[in-house]
Amino acid sequence: MDLGTTTLAASLVEPASGRRLASAGSLNPQREFGADVVARLDAACRSEEARSRMAELVRDGIRRLADELLATAGQRPGSLATIAIAGNPAMEHLLLDLSVNSLAFPPYRPLFTATKTVTAADLGWDLPVEVVLFPLPGGFVGGDTVAFLYGVAGPQSPLPAPRLYLDMGTNGEIALAVGDTMLATSAAAGPAFEGGNLACGMAALPGAVSGVALEGERLAVTTVGGKPPVGICGSGVLDTLALLLEQGIIDPTGRLLSAGEIPSSLGNRVAEVTGEPAFILHRDAVRTVYLSQKDIRQVQLAKGAIRAGMEVLFGRAGIGCDDVAEVILTGSFGAVLAPRSLKNVGIFTEKMVHTTSFVREGALCGVERALATPGGLTAVDALASAIRVIPLSGTPAFEKDFLAHINFPQPG
Q: Please, what are the domains in the chain?
């Protein structure tokens, strides 16, 4: 299980072979308490009742996914051997119904750092198994980051050339391997990259716009599953922004130009929706799918935070961004995100475009690998203990870099 702030992703694997028997996913039901970690931590700190309700919601969500996986694979609950869960520190604490005060306030530390094992009964599940939660290296770097790193790098020491690992989810976890040193941090990007908190945003479900392209003067829209457009997920958002910047429909400050300022036929797609400027991606008799001016600002804040977090790690390691030999990217975008879109919005440099590889379900694959590898969970603990966590909160360098990267780059 990858226990994400926005989405839950789960799979059923055969430990001996590592073969995946089934997979399933859903939105995190805790979203009624807020779309991001900060909102949920605030709710949990204010009310023990709210905290317990969040634990109940996510436990029920995980159990439903477990039942779905078992049914898909034709297996009985008694055949389960282990449940392993990787999430950020807040998500793992809320699953266990633990106090989150130490995460929400200084010194921003988790209540446990090593792999934690509880019984399924402790979580209210009538399953005869242990539940393993991945280790939490710090208050802002969690088990999902450890799982992602383990899945792509394995238990071996990182290679000498600098490598950047980027999970562009709600928290924006970033890790940098330089020699045998692993630095990691988390930038509060918010859920925009996963389609959250946007006017027409949605998870990468059928009908979500996952990509856009210009064919002549015609806007071509790609959706998940080829279904009629019903919303837009993360990859579609970034693709759309990259296109609008390239065509001069958004200026570097993030302002969406008015229809009268746009000489091409794309100006016909700029209109006011619910009282604010918006770019229309799709309109039919049932609905309008669009990206609003407010949505664009949300992405600006998210991308500024991600790029600033990267720059802080580069500074700590004494390297520049173009010293990075390889970038490994994951996230719940809905499609294999084009690295050039990340350059066009100002997250990547030109060199990063050519050195980036994309890993689907990075954290989930790491959990699977740990379960299927002898000694895998021990290796995961060793990896977690070797990570040096760099906090961003209150760091002048982060604030300076955030302001420097809040605007979009000049096109060209």
A: 2-152 (3.30.420.480), 155-191+297-362+393-404 (3.30.420), 195-292 (no CATH)
